[in-house]
Amino acid sequence: MSVKLTVIRQAEQSPMGELTPAKLPVGEVIAQSRLGQDVTLDESGASVGVWDCSPGVFRRHIMNREFSHIISGWCVFTPDGGEPVELRAGDAVFFPANCEGVWDIREQFRKTYVIF
Q1: Interval 15-39: pLDDT, tens
Q2: I want to staple 75 with a disulfide (CB 3.0 to 4.6 A). Which of 22, 100, 105, 108 is the partner?
Q3: Using CA atoms, how far apart are residues 89 and 58, in angstroms rounded to an integer?
């Protein structure tokens, strides 16, 4: 049986797609985000890639589980009903399924992710 690995290469310098506004902005400064190396793995129902976002505040709208590694920048994520969590370059975070909350991106932010 052959096993195929999906690798995100050089995430710090990954070419990125077009900027798009945050889907659920909070306030007047609307964050702009974009994807790079975004791959959907049909056989597992997962997607992997690089996400980059400008400063701004918006609601998390992805209801799947997610694991991310922060490459650069920093933010505060506040899960609904929970305490704010500061995330900085070098941190890793797991979002359980149905984790809603508010992203407050304070500095240009880049992370790799696996959504499953």
Answers
A1: 999 999 999 999 998 999 999 999 9
A2: 105
A3: 20
